[in-house]
Amino acid sequence: MPSADVVVIGAGLAGLTAAIELAERGATVQLVAKGMAATHWAHGGIDVAAPVGARSPANGVSRLRARAGHPYAILEPDLGAALAGTLACLADGGLAYRGDLRAPLRPFPTPIGGLRPAAIVPAGQAPALEPWAPGEGLLLLGIERFRDFWPQYAARNLARRAWARGPSRIASAVAALPGIGGLHNLNSLVLARRFDDPSWRAEAIAALRAAIPGDGPWRVGVPAVLGMERHAEVLAEVTEAIAHPVFEIPTLPPSIPGLRLFDVLRARAGAVGVRTQVGFEVAEVERDGDTVTAIATRTAARPLRIMARDVVLATGGIGGGGLRGRRDGSLEERVFGLPLAAPARAEWLRGDLYGANGVALESAGIRVDDELRPIGPRGEVVLRNVRVAGSALAGMRYLVERCGDGVALASAYRAARLIAGAADAARTAVAS
Amino acid sequence: MSFIDAADVSYPAFSTDNCIKCNVCTTVCPVARVTDLFPGPKYVGPQAQRFRGGPSPDTTVDLCSGCGYCTRACPAGVLIAETNSRARARVVEQRGTSLRNRVISDTDLLIRFGVPLAPLVNLGMRLPLARRFGEAVGGIHRRAAVHPFARRTFRSWWRRRRTVADAGPDKTVVYFHGCAVNGFEPSLGRDAVEVLERNGFTVIVPDQVCCGLPMISNGLYPQARRKAARNLRSLAAYARRGYRIVTTSTSCGYTLKAEYHEMLDLDDPEARAVSEATWDICELLAELHHSGRLDTRLAPMARDLPYHPPCQLKAHGIGTPAMDLFALIPGLRAIDSNHDCCGAAGTYGLKKERWQIAHDVGQPLFDKVAASGAPDAACDSETCRWQISTATGLPVRHPVEYLAESYRAYDAAAALSGGLKA
Known about the structure:
The structure holds 2 protein chains of 2 kinds.
Chain A: E1 3-9, H1 13-24, E2 29-33, H2 57-65, H3 72-92, E3 97-98, E4 106-109, E5 115-118, E6 121-122, E7 137-143, H4 151-160, E8 170-175, H5 188-196, H6 198-210, E9 218-223, H7 231-241, E10 246-249, H8 256-271, E11 275-278, E12 282-288, E13 291-297, E14 304-313, E15 323-325, E16 331-333, E17 386-388, H9 398-401, H10 404-431
Chain B: H1 11-15, H2 24-28, H3 30-34, H4 41-49, H5 69-73, H6 80-95, H7 99-104, H8 107-114, H9 118-126, H10 128-138, H11 154-160, E1 172-176, H12 178-184, H13 186-198, E2 202-204, H14 213-217, H15 221-240, E3 244-247, H16 250-262, H17 269-277, E4 278-280, H18 281-290, E5 303-308, H19 311-316, H20 321-326, E6 332-336, H21 355-372, E7 377-379, H22 382-392, E8 396-397, H23 399-421
Parallel strand pairs in B: 1-2, 1-3, 3-4, 5-6, 5-7, 7-8
């Protein structure tokens, strides 16, 4: 039977971060996941905290920390180091980010013409957050036949928003890019890979430039398809060729900025020795009292048992598939059947999903102690060697508080620190 | 268009209801990465499935190479590759398929004629003119990876070998050699037997035919079911008594483990017993090692070895046991290719209209292998080995061949030092 010091379950932002941190601290790590994760659905920025009224991520965290049962109440001390570590790792992988915990939260236009607060974003999105100069207009520049970004529609919606200190005017234009007219299925991925090709890109950039109306000054928002593996290069060329500041607007899934983020983290995990298996869910768990001794994943034939000393559970919330609603109105945690803090069935969807407080179900999840171990209704630790990271944690409403990425990073970092610290302590004890 | 009759739709197709249209599958598809002809797994799978009540709405599903990455990446549990394979079978059922596809998927037939005529056929494979003719008339791309036929099948070697008495289910393994070992690479079969016997197993080789995978991949399900029925009759008797069935081909192994059930709907006790009992040889040897029972007296091989874990292996869900085995050979540094697919996908890369796609899918892998400067490379699946070998000009071998070589070198060194002492 294979074994690892730590089994990490889940390959999203929390799972990958925990796996990387653990491997870098010397642990052997096996990462298992049922499928790819929410990184592919998200915008690729790092949402740390942006509850209504927050001025910066740090300010948002201090507001959320004060809420009873919020993960930041225990995670806040780890947040700075976790964020710095991840941004450094992304920069090493060629993916530069801008912004930090003290950066102001500013409105960022979405592909349907909404506004969301953002502060820490990939370099390609950063120009959107610069203060708007007097007379500077926003031009939404779409791509002909690309169905996931309709600049006219987005521009009209944006014009109706209350955008304090925003652009002086909002306009739209469409560019026809070469050689994509006959495609069945023109999605963001096809375009991003086309931009990786230097010769196609030269023509495409010329077409983008030609589509910009002459009555600037503009700041130009384009769909986030500016290259995949060679994004930095593409971004530099586009910025150079177009006389106006340009930024990427992440589109519907597959989100290219999310994919870039995932690719860099996954490559790093591989480079530091994390073994990854995607596509097979945990089928069985073996315990000895309150300790998990092994997990078994589904395979094409028999379950595969993997012995582990520690486990990081990073399977996500309801969106990510870590929690599931059952027909009888109860909610289950799918790997260990852990106790959950959840509202009664009748309350699940009470409230406004997009309102200031969201719906009650959002805050459902696993309650943990200071060491991120799952606890039961009376505060007792249920599983001693399992740490919970990411959106499976109870007490946050990541849609309205926009805190999912920050919680993922800080909890993953803390889980790794505690597990590696305990292992070091054990080694020292044996040595002495 | 009528509503799809629920009784007519099997389980994988039902799973398409779980699709949330996130396109994660499209991001991992090796074929969609290189060609605009294939609109991707979501498009030909969950999306097109809604229209498959009557005649199939389109045939682009045939561009799927069957690697299975889409199913494994799906966060919603949709059996995309399985749905698409079945959709292809529906198209073939409704519209028929080419003689070429029927011939290249019948490997038992190819071996029956190819092995006796090996000198002639193998010569033909090397002659550019013959290859051009093969492309024009037979539809086999002139640059496609084809492996010469063996002069003698594995089974004929095995028949002349002294048979050892069955030592019971714990100490005996049933070897499913598959077509590649039987008709093309019998030396791999001999190495596998050697390695298994060295580790205390008695090997038996019961009646068997092609697993049926080439037919499944070409949408010829009725033909594949006939192959499966014969294999299950022969293998289930062993599986039910607790014998392990071992394969040296990750594709035959995956077919026995999963595809009889997932594609061919063979969900009876026989098929389940065979699935449960089937082991990839590296999986079995790594498991022996984890329990401390693998003979690790291995001679050093100080060198780098590029290793490509094929997409079929990844579908097993057993990790990369070959990497654990390579780590036991002193000095051998195996380097995971970190590439999704070589492109060959069984018979896919042979076809003149698919060869370029297959080649483009594998190109980054070929570049990595060539750039490594290593004199050879390793891979668990036969058509992948042939594809990488043809593209790079390097020999590509199964992981177990390295173990066998290292064991033999150890024995030779031991005999030498024993001789010197005496």
